[in-house]
């Protein structure tokens, strides 16, 4: 399972697992704090905040070309832009430093970390995301070019030879609309990958009206009128982004909104 949907909200499975793990770990630490009269909860809170800060700063430096013109975007961590190794290292060093200074917090800190790691692992295993997932071929799905409603259908095989990113979207979807300029920016700046758009279930007139209204110039635009791509990857919401290797095999799926920086970072990791 690549994503988890709660009401109108769709979370990447890894993000959902992290949020649950953090909540349970902090809850247990707070409970042990009350019993032992220590301050382990504040240690974990500060470790999480420090990790996010350091991880975000590392990501900003790494993807500076996408952030330097928009200072407000530096604080918008909803795009998931974190340098994970830096975040984890900073958090662990802070915890170690605090435990060495005050050994009384060790039992509660250890308990909070243990329940957090266990919860994260259980959710990832239960949803099938616990290990390295092999790349898999997508079924052959007919897509209709946007340029003409009567055009002969085609499929994604034509994009083999390069890493390919396929964005599943719809004009009625607010996060889809918000991320479209980011996809346009990356498509214009990277000729070494294929950026492909597959509209899910909308009529041609609705799609064209949206693109004209937003003044978007996007290549590789297709219609998936029966939403077969979404069904093939068991997408539970939009936007959903598929990442294919050079052989056209599915290697990853990202549920939720992407920024230009996080999209560029993901492409770099695949290459």
UniProtKB/TrEMBL annotation:
Give the stretches traversing the membrane.
6-31, 43-61, 81-97, 104-126
Where would you find this protein in the cell?
Answer: Cell envelope
Q: Which Gene3D superfamilies match?
A: Glutaredoxin
Principal localization reads other
- Superkingdom, according to UniProt? Bacteria
| Keyword match Membrane | yes
Domain Thioredoxin: start-end pairs: 132-271
Q: What's in the keyword line of the UniProt record?
A: Cytochrome c-type biogenesis, Membrane, Redox-active center, Transmembrane, Transmembrane helix
The record's listing under InterPro entries reads: Lgt, Redoxin, Thioredoxin-like_sf, Thioredoxin_CS, Thioredoxin_domain, Thioredoxin_ResA/DsbE_sf
Q: What is this protein called?
A: TlpA family protein disulfide reductase
């Amino acid at each position: 399972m690549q994503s988890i949907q709660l009401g109108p909200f769709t979370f990447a499975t890894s993000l959902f697992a992290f949020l649950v793990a953090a909540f349970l770990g902090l809850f247990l630490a707070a409970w042990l704090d009350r019993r032992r009269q220590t301050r382990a909860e504040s240690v974990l809170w500060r470790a999480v905040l420090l990790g996010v800060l350091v991880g975000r700063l590392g990501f900003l430096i790494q993807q500076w070309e996408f952030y330097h013109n928009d200072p407000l975007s530096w604080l918008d961590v909803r795009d998931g832009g974190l340098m994970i190794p830096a975040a984890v290292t900073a958090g662990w060093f802070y915890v170690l430093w605090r435990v060495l200074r005050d050994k009384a917090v060790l039992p509660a800190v250890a308990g909070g970390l243990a329940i957090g790691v266990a919860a994260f692992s259980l959710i990832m295993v239960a949803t099938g995301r616990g290990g390295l997932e092999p790349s898999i071929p997508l079924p052959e799905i007919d897509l209709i070019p946007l340029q003409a409603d009567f055009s002969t259908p085609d499929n994604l095989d034509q994009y083999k030879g390069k890493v390919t990113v396929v964005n599943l979207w719809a004009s009625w979807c607010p996060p889809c609309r918000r991320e479209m300029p980011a996809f346009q920016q990356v498509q214009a700046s990277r000729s070494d990958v294929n950026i492909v758009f597959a509209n899910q279930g909308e009529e041609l007139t609705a799609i064209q009206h949206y693109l004209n209204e937003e003044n978007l110039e996007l290549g590789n635009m297709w219609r998936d009128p029966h939403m077969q791509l979404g069904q093939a990857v068991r997408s539970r919401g939009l936007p959903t982004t598929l990442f294919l290797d050079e052989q056209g095999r599915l290697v990853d799926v990202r549920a939720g909104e992407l920024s230009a920086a996080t999209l560029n970072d993901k492409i770099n990791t695949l290459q």
